[in-house]
Amino acid sequence: LYRAEFDALGFETEWIDGTPFDRAGHLVARMRGGDGTHLLLIGHLDTVFEPGSPFQRFVRDGDRATGPGVVDMKGGNVVILHAMHALRAAGLLDGLTLTVVMTGDEERSGDPLDLARDVLVQAAEDADIALAFENGDSNPATAVVARRGSTGWRVDVTGTPAHSSQLFQPGVGSGAIYEASRILSGFYTALAGEPNLTFNPGVIVGGTDVAYDAFQAGGTAFGKSNVVAGSAVVTGDLRAITIPQLEEARTKMAFVTSQSLPGTSAAITFDDGYPPLAPTEGNHRLLGMFSQVSTDLGYGPVAPVDPRNAGAADVSFTAGLVEMALDGLGPGGGDDHTVDEWIDLPTLALQTKRAAVLIHRLTR
C-alpha cells in the first residue's frame, strides 16, 4: 500500500527482503532532487499484535479511533505520506532529496541486528538530518531529542548441587540462587539512582535443572527445598542515554558478576541492542526550528520529551551519523501496545502540517 503511494508521488521505491535477518522486510523510498539538504524520514510497518489476536480492526468513533498500531505507528506513517502529498500539492516536492525508510521489525528486531538495520544505517550515513515519526509520549506538544538505548543482558550462574544440610560448607558453598541474588543486589547498589539509567531483571529461573528459551522469554526450573541450586539464569534490559553511560554500566555489571560467592561462578553477556540517541546541541537546534514552525502555524511551542518517557526506537541508529535528529513527530493517542490502543485523529492533520512546513524550511 505504501509503496504504491510513494511510486505515485515520484519516489523510487525498493523492498528489502527480511529473510536474511528472519523478520519482515523494509520499504525504502528515495527522491533524488540534487545536492541540497538530504533528509531521512523514518517509520515502521509492524505492530505488536499476532494474527490470532482479537484486536485486529480499525474502529472509528468521531475524532477517536482504536486499532492495532494506530498510534505506534501507523499514524506516524500516514503523517509522512501526507506531508509528501502536501509538498506535492504546493509544488515543492520536486527538487528535494529525501529518503524514507519504513522498517518491518522495529517492535521486535531481526537477528543479526546489524544486518537488520544495515539499510537504515546506510541511509543515515548519506543524510544530513533525520526526522522520525514515532508518537513519542503521544503528546503533540512535545518532541523527542533524546532516546535511551536498550540492550539486553543475561547472567548465567553455576553452583555446586548438594544436600541443603551442606550449604555454606567449603565443598559446597552458597549455591546458584544465592549467587544470582548477590549479583542483582550488587547491580542495585552500584547503579541505582543514576539519572536516565535503568537495568531491569525481567526473568529469573533457578534450581537443580534449568531451561531458558530466549525467543519465548521464559523457562522452566526444577528443584527441591532440600537441594542446593546448581544453576540459575537471569535476563533483563539495560537502558542508558549516552554511549559512555552504557559502557560504564556494563563495566560495573561485569565487575559485580565476577565477585562470586564460594562454590559458584557466573558470567554476564550483553547483546548490541538499540544504541542511545544522546541529546546533542544539533538535536535541540532542530527542536527549536520545529517549535517555531508549530508556533507560526498557531499550534504553540513544542517542548522536549523527558528521555525516561521515550523508549528505544529506530531513530537511534542515526546517532552520530547525521547533523541533527528529531523524533516523536507522530500523532497523539495512547495505550500503545495494548488492546485499547487509540489515536486522536485530528492530530494527524496537525502533525502533517508541521512536518510539511519543517521539511520545506530545512530544504530551502
Structural class, from helix and strand content? alpha+beta
In whole angstroms, how far apart are the ends? Answer: 30 Å
Taken from the alpha-carbon principal axes, the silhouette is: elongated
Quaternary structure classification: single chain
Strands of the widest sheet, in order across it, are: 1-2-6-3-7-16
Q: Describe the main β-sheet briefly.
A: 6 strands, mixed
Give the low-pLDDT segments: none
- Average pLDDT: 95
Radius of gyration: 24 Å
Q: What's the tally of helices? A: 8
User: In sequence order, what are the helices and strands, one letter per element?
Assistant: HEEEEEHEHHEEEHEEEEHEHEEEEH
**Helicity level, as a percent range?**
25-40%
Proportion of β residues?
25-35%
How many DSSP E strands? Answer: 18
